[in-house]
Amino acid sequence: MNFVRRLLSNGTGLLLVLGGYFLVLQEAFPEGGWAQTILHLGVLFLSGYFLGELGSLARLPRVVCYLAAGILLGGSGLHWVGKNELEDLTSVNDLALGLIAYGAGMHLEWSVLRPKIYLVTLFVGFLPLLVFTGIMGLFFFAGNALLAGFPPAMTQSLPLLLAGVAMSLSPASTIAVIRGMRSKGVFSETVLSIVVAVDLVVIVLFALILARTADGLPHTNYTEASMVAELVVSLGLGGILGWLLNRGGGHGPAMARFWLVVSALALASVTRQTTVYLMVHYQFAFHIEPIIVCLVAGVYLRNASRAPEEFERAITWLSIPVFVVFFAMAGAVMRLDVLADHWPLAGLVFLVRWAGLEAGSRLAAWMGGETPSLRGLYGRAFLPQAGVSILLAMEVSRRIPDWGMEASAVLLAVIAVNELVGPAALQWMLGKAKAVKAA
Questions:
Q1: Model pTM score
Q2: 120 and 38 housed in the same domain
Q3: CB neighbour list of residue 58: distance below 8 Å, 6 or more residues apart
Q4: Helix, strand, or coil (residue 122)
Q5: CA torsion, points 165, 169, 170, 174, in degrees to nearest 10?
C-alpha cells in the first residue's frame, strides 16, 4: 500500500511540474530574466526530485534518475532547458563543485586511514595507473576506428580526458551502499578508505590534465613548471581556506553552511577572473584549481577542525537540493545522439576500466598481504561512479566551449553505465565478504 501511495504521489507531482511548465509558466515569464532563471532552477529541482523518488521505488540509483530528468528536459528530450538556460545557472555548478570537493576531503580521516596506510597506498598507485594505461592503450590500438567522426581537435584530447575520468571512483555511492546495508567490517572500511584516497589523487591529476587542454589558452608558455606552481598554490590556498573556515564556521550549523556556500562561490568566481586577467594583461596562463583548493580544505576540516561533525552535517544539508539540480543539469547537456553514434566507444571504455580495476586490485591486494579470500572482491567493489566523476565531466563541458559538450556526453554515458552496474556490484561484493551486519 505504501508503495502504491508513493508511486501515485510522486508520479502526480512529476506530471504537475511538467504540465504546469508547458501550459502556463513557460509563457508567463520574460525571456532571459531572473524570473525565468529561477523557473528553470525550480523545474530542474522538482523534476529531478520526483523522478528520483520514483526511481528509488525500483531501486535505481537516485543520481541516474536526476540525470534522466535532465535528459528529459534538455536537448535530447523536450528542449525546455538548453545551453543558454544552463549558462544562467553557473552558480549552481560552482556551488556543487565546492560541496563535492569539500565532501570528498571530509571523508579522509587520518586516524582511520593510518592502520591501512600501506595497503591503501598500493591501491592508490595501481588502480589509477592500470585504468589510465588500459584506456590509453585502447586508443593507441583502436583510436582511428573509435574516434572516427569526432572533430580533429577533440580526437587529440578525448582519450586523455576519458582516461582521467575513468580513474575516478565514487565515495558518495560507496557510502550510500555501505550505510544502506548496515555493513561493518574490515572489508567495507578498507574499500571506503581506498575509494576516498584514490579520488583525492585523481582530482589532482584530472585538474592537471584539464589545464593542458582547456580554457582555450595558448599554452606556448605553459610548461611543467607552470603546472607544478599551480598545484603548489592550489594546495597552499586549500590549507589557508580550511583554517579560515575552521575559524569562522565552527560556531554552529548555520554559520558552517553560510561560510561553505560563500567560500565555494567566491573561490570559483575569483579563480575564474584571475585566470582571465593574467591572460589578457600579461599573456600568462595560470589557473588555480577550485577543486583542489576545496578538497584540501575538506581534509583540513576533517582532521584539524574543532567541530568536523558540524561541517559534515552542513555539507549533507546543502548537498540535497544542490546535487539534484547539478545532476539534472548534467543530464540536460547529455546528447543521446552522440551516445547512439559512439556506443561502441562507451561500452569498450566501461569494459577496459573494469579490467583495469580488477587487475590493479588483485595486484595491490596480493602485494599488500590481503587475505586470499578477499583479493578477488575488490575490483568490482570499485565500479560505482557518481558525484566526483560527473563533476569532472561537467568541468570538461564548461571549460572547453568548442567541443566540450560533445566530449562530456561521452564521459557521462560511461559514468551512467558504471553508476547503474556499480552499486549492485558493490553490494554483491560486500555480501560475499560477509561484511553485512545481521538484521
A1: 0.75
A2: no
A3: none
A4: helix
A5: 160
Q: Say how far apart CA 387 and CA 163 lie, in whole Å.
A: 17
DSSP letter, residue 436: B
pLDDT tens per residue, range 361-388: 999 999 988 888 788 888 888 888 866 7
Contacts 24+ apart (CB under 8 A), 268-276: 268/94, 268/97, 268/98, 269/94, 275/215
C-alpha distances out from residue 233 to 103, 252, 308, Å: 21, 30, 24
C-alpha R_g of the chain: 21
Instruction: Show the domain range for 241.
Output: 90-432
Q: Which amino acid is at 193?
A: S
Q: Do 101 and 20 fall into the same domain?
A: no
- C-alpha 181/C-alpha 431 separation (Å) is 9
Q: Which of 38, 53, 87 is the last residue of a domain?
A: 87
d(CA 399, CA 213): 9
Helix orientation angle between 404-432 and 343-367, rounded to the nearest 10 degrees: 40
Residue 158, all three cell numbers: 578525448
Please tell me whether residues 410 and 274 are part of one structural domain: yes
pLDDT given at position 130: 94
Instruction: Indicate whether 97 and 201 sit together in one domain.
Output: yes
The reply to whether 217 falls in a domain is yes
